[in-house]
Design a protein that fits this description.
The chain is an alpha+beta fold and 113 residues long. It has helices at residues 28-40, 45-60, 90-112, and strands spanning 3-5, 16-18, 65-69, 72-75. It contains 3 helices and 4 strands; from the N terminus they run ββααββα.
């Protein structure tokens, strides 16, 4: 599937096409989750994959660090910005992949009270 982006603002944005998202490039576990989510939620593959990768990053960033240079290390964080029209299922997809994180946060809040 190729998405066509149209200019619709005062900015000089030229229309362009994107190739299909390379789902096969994802690690097997994440790919399986993305493919399952694609069956459950009608949303673009890139949107689903970015949510899955963001959730995986959140789940692992306190457990592992990456050394970018000698003595320069930090968490394996990923940063995402999702730009999509209203109704493209951003919230539905995030609810799927961030359910465990939200439950953990809620439990931590209750424990802190």
């Amino acid at each position: 599937m190729t998405y066509e982006v149209q200019a619709f603002s005062n900015y000089d944005i030229q229309p362009f096409s994107l190739p299909p998202f390379p789902i096969d490039a994802l690690p097997l576990t994440i790919r399986a989750a993305v493919e399952e989510a694609m069956l459950a939620v009608e949303a673009p593959a890139a949107l689903i994959a970015s949510s899955a990768l963001a959730a995986a990053s959140l789940a692992t960033q306190t457990e592992f660090n990456v050394e970018r240079d000698v003595g320069l290390d930090g968490p394996i964080s990923l940063y995402f910005i999702t730009i999509a029209e209203s109704g493209e299922r951003k919230s539905a997809v995030d609810r799927l992949f961030f359910k465990a994180a939200r439950e953990f946060e809620n439990a931590q809040e209750l424990e802190a009270e």
